[in-house]
Amino acid sequence: MAFSLLTENRGRVAVITLTGELDASVAGQLRDAVDQVSHTEVERLVLDMTNLDYMASAGLRGLVFAKQKMGGVDIYIVGAHDAVLETIEMTGFHHSVFMLDTYDPTVIEVF
Question: Domain span at residue 86?
Answer without folding.
Answer: 4-104
